[in-house]
């Protein structure tokens, strides 16, 4: 692919093995083998979108390549996507190309941030059974792995992000391979996450935020005990207020909280809504002034100078600083299997829009069903 402009250029190879090696040499892969994006495979994937190949979905930095349908279809083929997956991939590209996502800055930062994609609404089942239960963020789920990987390959080959030259993440994290999950809406006490962004329940959307890897949050309370909800909220808030996180130091961005069914049952029995949980977590996720003065005096001073939360230089060490000022920037949803663990994903918090959460609708009626499209590797 040519990352700049809307045109594609073709490579030639004697065999698929040689083609794969050539793609590796050019830095066009994520380090893992890919499906070779032959002209025929890409053309069939383009056809399955229902769009013209030169339609531009957005511009992807830092290379500022035009994300045409043809280029996005190429990334989807390489990632192993099926035609059923492509509506979600297209929506994800639309979302991260929004200026509020700060894709250029996100790709160039030294932080380990990666786009966490949450698929909501009927597309969870209509687009290849995107997993929301046990191990949803791990291996073994083709739709999750392929859709998230397609976004990453587009970020590499259209956006031009390559480790150590334009992608400056010091360590990265495994979510930079693929980071896609569906909301377990059927079993959740909360309305679909997408409805909080203005979508109707029967519509589909992707919600995307830049996030770190999941931080495991252990809770083993008695859900029949009314006091359990207090302990659950407290332990989640403590993980959110991890002194080493960017959220604590920069106090912006977003935090994602993915609760397992046992933990949401505690919330349900306490009669709390999603908005209640967001407000409680925002209130409880604090760090002491003394801790910030000790571990990060420079950031503490700068943060207080640019903050509308009044914390004076004379504040006592035991006074508390809230990690997030806006409860709406705490994404709360259910996914995963039943058990002891909720997952908390801190964020980068920087960029012109301070790690904004973005979203885009998934157009399920746009894709075309193409005979013989079940396997794009042939």
Q: Can you offer a commentary on this structure?
A:
The chain is 33% helix and 15% strand. It has 13 helices and 12 strands. The chain has helices at 16-25, 39-49, 69-79, 86-96, 103-108, 123-126, 142-157, 228-240, 246-250, 261-269, 274-284, 289-295, 297-305, and strands at residues 56-60, 65-68, 114-120, 180-182, 205-211, 215-218, 255-259, 286-288, 320-322, 330-334, 341-345, 358-361. The strands form 4 sheets. A 4-stranded mixed beta sheet has the order 4-3-5-12. The chain has a 4-stranded mixed beta sheet with strand order 6-11-7-10. Helix 3 (69-79) crosses helix 7, helix 4 (86-96) crosses helix 7 (142-157) and helix 12 packs across helix 13 (297-305). The model is unreliable at 1-6 (pLDDT under 50).
